[in-house]
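The material for today's practical consists of a large collection of protein records. There is nothing in a record beyond a sequence line and a structure line. As an example, a complete record with its sequence and its structure tokens follows:
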Amino acid sequence: MPLRSVARSTPILLVSLALVVAALVAACGQDNPEVTASPGSSTSSPDETGTAGEAGFPVSVTGDNGEVTLETQPERIVSLSPTATEMLFAIEADGAVVAVDDNSNFPPAAPVTDLSGFTPNLEAIAAYDPDLVVLSTDTGDVVAGLEAIGIAVLQLDAVEDLDGTYRQIEVLGAATGHVGDAAEVVAEMRSDIDELVATVPDREVPLTYYHELDDLLFTVTSSTFIGEMYALAGLENIADATAADGDDYPQLASEYVVAQDPDLIFLADTKCCGQSADTLMARPGWGQLRALRDGGVHELDDDVASRWGPRVVDFLGVIVEATAMVPAR
């Protein structure tokens, strides 16, 4: 997937950079992050407060940068990944988070700085004296640079599916001493998603959809974590038939979208590119689409729709609600 101009805002950069890296990692067959035990390490159960004490360390976890050993529970964490930031707060490890990157805009309490996950500055990161840095892409060999000065780094690339999200939350729980909290978050997510899926009506003919990443008509296939959300709601992706092998973020032709006439259109470019039902109506030929005619255009929060953290439940909720509004054909 080609990278668009840096002038485009955060959500599209997150998708175009972080998700492309994930696709490359997957193509190389890299293992998903997991918790592993190293000699003398412990993955003991959390205490009654929901966090493992110092007795739970050292621990070793495996990220996309390999095995990472933490001798003691991190007390100063820097997150250069908006998704990791959301995960850290969800598992109640936020008390140790001293700085997050300039795109980590959720939750509101996150200590946002001018640190960049896309153009990381080694000295600026080290100035926060972190004992753990979490990131989603190794831009400029920042991982090696931080490790060279003795800072532990955990790289958690964009995932391909929900199982990858669950694993990353569990890895962060082990790495931060919040094993119990992480398990609770995962259990709640699983339960909420099961409840949402159970409400999806059975249809003889599946509804079709188009998910727009930006106004250049880049989209996703069902082989992405975004596509999995739609599949859970019983929707059929019009992009699947167009994607070349390994291209999970294809660019569609406007004429193709019009010819497919999807039942539903989801816009994940409302913030980055100012897209809406009104702007779609102005595109040549789009005014005749049933999604526009019947109120089937849904304007998403770009961030919620592009991050693979705990708010995927909210994303699925929007999809399920939109699906329920379409009469059976």
